[in-house]
Amino acid sequence: GAVVSQHPSWVICKSGTSVKIECRSLDFQATTMFWYRQFPKQSLMLMATSNEGSKATYEQGVEKDKFLINHASLTLSTLTVTSAHPEDSSFYICSARRPGTSFPDTQYFGPGTRLTVL
Amino acid sequence: AQTVTQSQPEMSVQEAETVTLSCTYDTSESDYYLFWYKQPPSRQMILVIRQEAYKQQNATENRFSVNFQKAAKSFSLKISDSQLGDAAMYFCASTIKAAGNKLTFGGGTRVLVKP
User: Fold this and answer.
1) Among residues A53, B4, B32, B40, which one has the fewest Cβ atoms lying within 10 Å of its Cβ?
2) CB contact under 8 A, A104 and B106
3) Least CB-CB distance to A111: which of B44, B107, B108?
4) Any bridge partners for residue B64, and if so which?
């Protein structure tokens, strides 16, 4: 099956610093990737849709200046949490859409990144 | 807009027994898909099963099967012959063509398997 990786798997940072999380599709090209946030014992909340070569589309209530998304290539999307604060501590998951011939394309999920902001 | 509701926060099942997880959804679209995802303690999301709305036949994947009741907008998951490895969070999700593959997830059901 298709593989999606995330790096780092966990990160601890100080309040006020920025953190970059990478999402890579290892064996297929993904024109679209999605970023989710998951709080403890809760469901996944879609933050934004990352499109290769164009600006990301953010869900309502998600600060685009806070969560910068860059889809630099067909296999890499990055999420940068700028000026992180303790309330940004969460589990961040990406998924990559593998293009197919019919709707819906299969989404493959990364293993997630645990962010802790001190 | 889509909504997905899972009314059971937690379900417990004896090993080798059967458990059914409930899911209801709401959409005004006619072209949509439904999914069940498993999230084990590793937190890696794993696709368990998917159902095309236009298909009347219920999807089946080995020990996992669904009961898709389109009129009632119900999409339950049955796990047969439960195994210890089935212990996980299970999320029901939907996507509509108009949403460009975006998934809407339910709140999740934790499945505990007792040996």
Assistant:
1) A53
2) no
3) B44
4) B61, B79
